[in-house]
Amino acid sequence: MPIHKSICRVCHGGCGVLVHVEDGRVVRVKGDPESPISRGWMCVKGIKSPDIANHPDRLKQPLKRAGRRGENRWTEIGWTEALDEISDRIDDLRKTHGPESIAIGQGTGRHHYMHVVRFANALGTPNWYEPGLAQCFIPRITVSHLTYGGFVVGDYYGKIRPECIVFWGHNPLVSSADGELAPAVARAMTGGCATIAIDPRRTQTAQKCGTWLAIRPATDAALALSMINVIIDERLFDKEFVANHTTGFDLLQAHTAKHTPQWAEKITWVKAADIVKTARQYALSRPAVLDWGLGLEQNSNSLQTVRAVAILRAITGNIDCPGGDILGMNILKGYPILKDKLPPESSKKRIGGEEFKLLSGWRAYMPSAHIPGLFRAMTDGIPYKIRSLMIFGGNPLLTVANPKKVYEALNALELLCVTDLFMTPTARLADYVLPAAFWTEIDHVQGFPLVAENYVYAQSAITHTGQCRQDEWIMDELSKRLALPGSKMSYKDIYAHQLSPTGLTHAEVAQMGYHTPPHKYKKYLERGFRTPSKKVELFSSVLKRMGLPPLPEYEEPHEGPIGCPELLAEYPYVLITGARSREFFHSEQRQVASLRRLHPHPTCELHPVVAAAIGVSEGDWTIVSTIRGQARFMAHVTVDIHPQVISVEHGWWFPERGDDSEALWESNANILTADCPPYDPAFGSYRLRGLLCNIKKLRQ
Ligand SMILES: Nc1nc2c(c(=O)[nH]1)N[C@H]1C(S)=C(S)[C@@H](COP(=O)(O)OP(=O)(O)OC[C@H]3O[C@@H](n4cnc5c(=O)[nH]c(N)nc54)[C@H](O)[C@@H]3O)O[C@H]1N2
Ligand SMILES: Nc1nc2c(c(=O)[nH]1)N[C@H]1C(S)=C(S)[C@@H](COP(=O)(O)OP(=O)(O)OC[C@H]3O[C@@H](n4cnc5c(=O)[nH]c(N)nc54)[C@H](O)[C@@H]3O)O[C@H]1N2
Ligand code: SF4
Ligand SMILES: [Mo]
């Protein structure tokens, strides 16, 4: 039986694997013990890859809507017919209403991520989006660039190990987020390393930590500011690094003088003594990693929160040193996204561009459209009507806030095309559904951890399913038909372009598994930091020029116990959503029996004190509500959550319930979340965490 080396991509990916193939099908996937990163480890959903790849419900043929929108009646068509018809309609729309009337959507961190940006630029539309971005990762990437001139990741792979790791709103032992793989993090946590988790939940990562700070959701900026205050006040900062490599320290010192641990205790629910202890432990352990996650971003103060946390690394001198937070090697040549093909007048029309300069404006790291504005433009036509949406692997009816609005918006479109592995609730509303290739069925080159690119790996198509095609091929075929710029360069040509600095070919990297040049530390000693001042900008000159606070500030969450006391009688708890579980990636895998058996129901976590107050026991069904709506979840009663916080999972639908229209709404966490202002002023982040809620027993 042929066995191929590859890399799993059920999540953002990176585990080295051995794929066993029989009759062109993947029959078994095992961890590759030779992988320097995962060393034979895999999570459960990666191991079950064959059950996803060979699932009877996989889409295998392009489909064209035969009934009313959403009726789920389809005609099977060939690729040529599908691509000809779609490109004709796109051509018509761009000529009649302008290319900006065509939006392009995608899912999180997929192989075709940058190809979508390229396709949108070539088509001349500024309106592409990814469902994370403002809510996920773009604040961390952008703030890293503003502050240190590049993206940093924890040095989990080097010879020198961190002496302390802080996990801040991050659960990598479950999420392996953005290519930061659980086994590497787990290895770094052993051997006397001090570990601290800052999280309203004692997650699987927090359970392995020496310290757990159960913070009030969306108040992290206050905690970070008070830790800066302690570190400066007690002179625990790295004097040499601060003096030689940073700007604005004196201004920071004056600015944070008022942010005492006592001030922060009242805001964050974390005791002042614990703040002092944590600040000392982090500052005195060198080197240390401060590993941040999504918990910092899904609120309306994401820029300032992420900035405050970023500054902690800098004043302790933990930037780009062995065992600290290291700047990426960026070993691949930049993806040719055809930025210059998007005319400036189109770029100006990007939805959100005027308002959210760091998400959609010219200052953005990778400008994309603001999601709530985009879906509103589909129904309201303000500032102009979005008439068509092409989604390459995304399920916004489950993953975007206010799914009822998304539903209305998708129904208002003239043309909706969805490319996916399965018939999702979003795909059901489409005019055309195109069958996507699974990770064992694609050719690909990827640098990782994502954005940092300290390693590179390649994948080859080793199996095939029906008529499934990889997303890049579909975009290339449409580009050719529309005679778009760049259409002569195929996605395979791009791999050679990306790999050119390594001197290796796609086939060579695929055979090797990974390519890893030796890591260079302290790159700033040669060329400074890539910021305007060539130093770490504690005081951000760019933010100042943009009219945004150049030093981090705390803002009370709009809909919290302090911000909205009038809501407390009816909504006494603070809601967080989207806790990751190993079995599922967002809204995926609910149809995979081997995984669903391990996690059959949508769950919420609540403290025993709350459970007793509302008469709920483990396994009871509950109704969780906010001012926006309600959804049902099965209770998991646990002391591993702050007593005033309720956590619900996201992404739940029930493929087994077929045409039952309620299945989409019943346990949809995003019915509870907020797509309305206030947004983060720079990123437009909307609120998925830190909202007021209530929970009651479901009386059946
Ligand atoms: N309430 C709440 N909502 C959240 C979050 C939260 O924490 N709380 N998290 C947010 C975050 S951080 C993110 S990134 C988003 C994620 O949002 P999405 O990316 O929309 O999430 P998925 O459910 O993974 O949807 C991906 C779809 O792509 C399909 N797919 C998988 N692989 C491929 C492929 O190679 N090609 C194609 N064409 N399709 C493929 C899958 O079958 C699935 O239907 O969700 C966000 N939504
Ligand atoms: N198995 C699996 N893995 C995944 C995903 C998945 O769906 N399933 N999704 C992928 C994606 S797109 C992403 S973005 C990553 C996310 O991965 P991580 O960055 O690890 O984020 P989460 O697990 O969403 O949240 C981290 C923690 O933040 C806590 N939290 C919530 N609100 C706050 C807050 O206000 N402050 C603080 N300090 N903590 C808070 C939550 O309790 C949670 O434990 O995971 C990726 N990996
Ligand atoms: S962590 Fe991600 S890459 Fe690794 S086995 Fe699991 S799904 Fe695959
Ligand atoms: Mo994400």
Note down, in words, how this protein is organized.
By secondary structure, the chain is an alpha/beta fold. It folds into 4 domains: 3-53, Phosphorylase Kinase, domain 1 (2-Layer Sandwich); 63-136 and 332-438 and 468-488, Rossmann fold (3-Layer(aba) Sandwich), CATH 3.40.50.740; 152-327, Dimethylsulfoxide Reductase, domain 2; 565-697, Barwin-like endoglucanases. It contains 26 helices and 27 strands. A 7-stranded mixed sheet has the order 5-4-17-16-15-6-7, with helices on both faces. A 6-stranded mixed beta barrel has the order 22-26-23-25-24-27. The chain has a 4-stranded parallel sheet with strand order 11-10-9-13. Helix 4 links the parallel strand 6 and strand 7 (128-129). Helix 4 (113-123) packs parallel to helix 20, helix 9 runs antiparallel to helix 12 and helix 9 (220-233) crosses helix 13 (272-284). The longest helix has 19 residues, at 79-97. The model has no long low-confidence stretch (mean pLDDT 97). The structure holds ligand MGD (2 copies), iron/sulfur cluster and molybdenum atom. The site of molybdenum atom has 3 residues, from loops. The site of one ligand MGD has 34 residues, from helix 17 and strand 16.
What is the element layout, followed by pairings?
Layout: E1 3-7, E2 16-22, E3 25-31, H1 44-47, H2 49-53, E4 63-65, E5 74-76, H3 79-97, E6 102-106, H4 113-123, E7 128-129, H5 138-148, E8 152-154, E9 164-168, H6 172-175, H7 182-188, E10 194-198, H8 204-207, E11 211-213, H9 220-233, H10 239-245, E12 246-247, H11 249-256, H12 261-268, H13 272-284, E13 288-292, H14 302-315, E14 325-327, H15 344-347, H16 371-380, E15 388-392, H17 396-399, H18 403-411, E16 415-420, H19 425-428, E17 432-435, E18 444-448, E19 455-459, H20 471-481, H21 491-499, H22 506-512, E20 514-515, H23 524-527, E21 536-537, H24 541-545, E22 573-577, H25 593-596, E23 603-606, H26 608-614, E24 621-626, E25 629-637, E26 645-648, E27 689-697
